[in-house]
Amino acid sequence: MARLTVILNAIERGDQEAADRLLPEVYQELRVLAAQRLSQERPGQTLQATALVHEAYLRLVGSECRSWRGRGHFFAAAAEAMRRILVENARRKKRLKHENSRQEGDSPNADRATEAAMDELLALDEALPLLSQEDPVKAELVKLRYFTGLTMEQAAQVLKISRATACRYWSYAQAWLLDEIEGHD
Questions:
Q1: Residues 64-105: pLDDT tens digits?
Q2: Which residues contact 24 (CB under 8 A, 6 or more apart)?
Q3: Cβ neighbours, 10 Å, residue 112
Q4: CA gap 64, 56 in Å, rounded
Q5: What is the full DSSP assignment across 4-54?
Q6: Predicted confidence (pLDDT) per residue in 9-51, tens digit
Q7: Which residues, 6 or more positions from 98, have their beta carbon under 8 angstroms from its beta carbon?
Q8: Backbone angles phi, psi at 173, to 5 degrees
Q9: Which of 6, 53, 139, 168 could be 132's S-S partner, Cβ–Cβ 3.0 to 4.6 Å?
Q10: Contact (Cβ atoms closer than 8 angstroms) between residue 155 and residue 37
Q11: Which residues lie below 8 Å from residue 167, measured CB to CB, with a gap of 6+?
């Protein structure tokens, strides 16, 4: 963990070689997190864990803002990158499905499970900024748990809160988001 912090600090100082040392340090952990997250997806998910990790990593090290305040902040940024990739992927699939169904006159019953999963992800993505306005820590917890697949213990550690507090925040956030999403149906 100390080695990762040293690498992150070097990247922040502009050390070009540090970015090359970062991926081997975090790859396996990001890969496990991505695999956990994608295993929660419904059938029809075509994005693979390796592709998700690589795309998230490229966005992280290629971004203008590469100032991470340690391991927790880095993984929070990785969660945000994975969230954006999954949302973009869902929007693209939904758009393509809509275009194809108009062209081919598909039955409205075609692949409802996949479409429901995409709708759920997009609704969550729309509600998260509202939760973030009310309570940024709870919104960050949702991103870490839902989009990165961290356990409650891992997310609590990243957020520097106790597991009990994380559990309370998680319960509140789930109820708040459900209420917000159902209120817009």
A1: 556 677 777 788 888 888 888 888 888 888 787 767 666 655
A2: none
A3: 10
A4: 14
A5: HHHHHHHHHTT-HHHHHHHHHHHHHHHHHHHHHHHHTSPTT----HHHHHH
A6: 787 777 778 877 887 888 888 887 777 777 766 555 667 778 8
A7: none
A8: -60, -40
A9: 139
A10: no
A11: 152
Position 175, amino acid? A
Structure tokens at 139: 């919104």
Residue with tokens 């356990």: 151
15 token code pair: 């050390």
Tokens of 29: 């952990």
Structure tokens at 124: 């969550």
Pull the structure tokens for residue 76: 């929070």
